């Protein structure tokens, strides 16, 4: 296929995808309107179905045409996979790579804190939550008109974590000792940069999440159309005598085969989370007649009554925890307190919502009490309908907050790294095709961008890990952002300018990985443990990989 037809067909294919989005919106509205159940079930069923409907409609519009010759549908899908995948290979590497960093931020929460509170963590009922709230209200009286999130201490995070919004609406995190209630530290660990990059591209949430939602739809199309790249690709994966293929192609197919279910799940759920600007008006208008407040209350247990500026007694958090509610006691007996959301503490419009979580996928629940102590809401996800269960399970699956933490985190990190490799290999195949078609400069430029981002993102994440081992810099949020951006941009510029940049970046990554445990030992007195051992093993593996390269050229 020549370059001209590919360019001329791209706008038409984009128009078909947008037309499929309009059709999906109409079908979702009809589903939320006609589903025979409660409004919350109609809204959640339609929400979960919106992105898959959009994907399937787009595939059908691209592949199915009247009086088309045999095999033309597969070729059109292949063209979408190649064109859209080539355009978004770098974006996919950034999204999946930052997703790995977001999982690491959660898994290494305790490891990032150089000086964690010493001693055993007391039970939630014995932690000074009320003293922490009183101290914060005394230091910041304006918080009585705001909302605070209080995360009790646990084995993986042995400190009480409080998050609230500052005067300029930026999130402020403060940690407290779980025994004495004394202030321990303020600020987030350095890996917050990667987590926020994955959630909203370090921009305004409304803009960043919407862009990520659209990218999620595009990635779902790339993944699904990848099945059409070869007629017998699945049979070729397993049969003994395969046709001659480049190494990159075989690796791309194998990695895609093992990561496709997880990647499609993350693409769909990520698009669902990102496109709330589109999904909420559709399902809210159809199922709730436009009453967004009722939709948020029924789906997310978010009750935000108007401010009543009348002073009352400060809420007793421990009493609220002990009270619980019948629905939670019946279905979530073993669930633990995940967080408390305290709204308008000390005012008549105040509420305390307690979120509980267990290890199972559906072991979620919450209950809300007002300033007068009356029970406002009580819900347990196991007792909900299938629509709400599917909606909440999609969110839990996307974030990986279920099951044994170490196992889920390990699986998500490995699958995320595999998807980065899948995107890199796809870009390498596109570069090889451009070179074969006589576009040598374009192919070399793409290879350099792939190397810059492929090395730059791990370098930037490792630099943040190095910051977390220095006590004076472990909570410097502004410095962490500057270091991340500087390292990533420098890697991209080097890869674009110097032909030997991949070797330099590879060596720099090895040095940084080996420097993290050394810096923690010498600067902070941290005895090397399992995390340091993993970093050293990665450094040694990268040295061996450089000596015996397996990546295609």
From TrEMBL:
PANTHER family: BLL7967 PROTEIN (PTHR34219:SF3), IRON-REGULATED INNER MEMBRANE PROTEIN-RELATED (PTHR34219). This is Uncharacterized iron-regulated membrane protein. InterPro entries: PepSY-ass_TM. It comes from the Bacteria. The chain crosses the membrane at residues 12-32, 44-64, 84-104, 211-233, 254-283, 410-431, 452-473, 479-496, 503-523, 529-545. Keywords: Membrane, Transmembrane, Transmembrane helix. Pfam families: PepSY_TM.
């Amino acid at each position: 296929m020549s370059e001209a037809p590919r360019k001329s067909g791209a706008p038409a294919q984009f128009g078909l995808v947008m037309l499929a989005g309009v059709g999906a919106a109409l079908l979702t509205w009809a589903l939320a309107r006609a589903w025979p159940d409660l409004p919350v079930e109609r809204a959640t069923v339609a929400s979960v179905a919106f992105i898959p409907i959009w994907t399937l409609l787009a595939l059908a519009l691209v592949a199915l045409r009247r009086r088309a010759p045999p095999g033309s549908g597969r070729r059109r899908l292949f063209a979408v996979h190649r064109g859209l995948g080539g355009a978004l290979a770098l974006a996919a590497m950034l999204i999946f790579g930052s997703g790995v960093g977001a999982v690491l931020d959660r898994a290494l929460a305790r490891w990032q804190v150089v000086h964690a509170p010493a001693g055993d963590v007391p039970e939630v009922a014995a932690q000074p939550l009320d003293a922490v709230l009183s101290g914060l209200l005394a230091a910041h009286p304006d918080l009585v008109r705001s909302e605070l999130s209080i995360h009790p201490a646990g084995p993986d995070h042995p400190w009480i974590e409080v998050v609230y919004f500052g005067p300029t609406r930026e999130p402020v995190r403060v940690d407290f000792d779980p025994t004495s209630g004394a202030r321990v530290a303020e600020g987030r660990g350095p890996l917050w940069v990667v987590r926020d990059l994955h959630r909203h591209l370090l921009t305004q949430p409304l803009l960043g999440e919407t862009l990520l939602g659209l990218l999620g739809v595009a990635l779902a199309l790339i993944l699904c159309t990848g099945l059409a790249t070869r007629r017998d690709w699945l049979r070729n994966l397993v049969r003994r005598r395969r046709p001659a293929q480049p190494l990159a192609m075989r690796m791309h197919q194998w990695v895609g085969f093992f990561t496709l279910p997880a990647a499609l799940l993350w693409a769909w759920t990520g698009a669902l989370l990102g496109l709330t600007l589109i999904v909420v008006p559709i399902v809210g208008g159809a199922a709730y007649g436009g009453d967004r407040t009722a939709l948020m209350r029924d789906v997310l247990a978010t009750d935000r009554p108007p401010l009543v500026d009348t002073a009352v007694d400060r809420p007793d958090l421990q009493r609220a925890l002990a009270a619980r509610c019948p629905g939670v006691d019946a279905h979530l007996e073993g669930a633990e307190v995940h967080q408390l959301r305290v709204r308008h503490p000390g005012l008549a419009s105040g509420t305390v919502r307690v979120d509980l979580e267990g290890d199972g996928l559906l072991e979620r629940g919450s209950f809300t009490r007002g300033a007068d102590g009356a029970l406002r809401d009580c819900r347990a996800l196991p007792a909900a309908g299938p629509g709400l269960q599917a909606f909440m399970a999609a969110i839990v699956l996307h974030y990986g907050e279920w099951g044994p933490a170490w196992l889920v985190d390990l699986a998500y990190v490995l699958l995320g790294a595999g998807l980065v490799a899948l995107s890199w290999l796809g870009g390498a195949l596109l570069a090889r095709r451009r070179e074969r078609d006589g576009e040598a400069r374009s192919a070399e430029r793409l290879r350099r961008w792939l190397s810059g981002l492929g090395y730059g993102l791990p370098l930037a994440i490792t630099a943040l890990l190095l910051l977390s081992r220095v006590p004076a810099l472990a909570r410097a949020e502004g410095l962490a952002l500057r270091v991340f951006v500087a390292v990533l941009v420098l890697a991209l510029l080097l890869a674009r300018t110097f032909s030997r940049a991949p070797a330099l970046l590879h060596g720099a990554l090895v040095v940084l990985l080996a420097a993290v445990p050394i810096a923690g030992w010498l600067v902070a007195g941290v005895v090397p443990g399992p995390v340091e051992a993993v970093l050293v093993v990665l450094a040694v593996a990268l040295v061996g990989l450089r000596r015996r390269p397996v990546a295609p050229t």
